[in-house]
Structure formats: C-alpha cells, structure tokens
Amino acid sequence: GSVGLSIYAFGLSPYTNSTDDEIATERAKDFFSGWMLKPLVFGDYPEVMKRILGSRLPVFTEEESEQVKGSSDFVGII
C-alpha cells in the first residue's frame, strides 16, 4: 500500500511589498505548513523555526532525519 498525508495549506501573501512583510509571509508559511512538509522532503524543520523555537523544538538525529526524509509516498495539499 501507499502511505501519505494531507496537509491543509492556504495561500499567504504579504500585506505590502515591504521586505518586512515578505519575510513575515515566508515565516508564516514555514510555521503553518513547513513544519510538516520540510522534514518529509529535507529531513529537518525550517531554519526559521529552529532559530525562533530553539531547544523547545525536537532535534532530529541523523538517523531520524534520513528515516523521515522521503518516507511518504505522497503528500496531498488541501
């Protein structure tokens, strides 16, 4: 069988064209959907999450990172 998951993601766009708004939008995307998608694709959490959450965010061992990376047969984005 196949193993996958569905992630609810919605479009986010900057309020203005300012650099601060663009950075905030990318940060929001990482916190809303990147925390699930990036480990599945890259084996680790988004850098911004690691920086902001620090020790409160679990750390993947190298073995865990390799285990989770590419482990899903498909990802559905709703």
UniProtKB/TrEMBL annotation:
Gene3D superfamilies: Glycosidases. One of its GO terms (molecular function) is beta-glucosidase activity. One of its GO terms (biological process) is carbohydrate metabolic process. It comes from the Eukaryota. It holds the Pfam family Glyco_hydro_1. Belongs to the glycosyl hydrolase 1 family. This is Beta-glucosidase 10. It comes from Noccaea caerulescens.
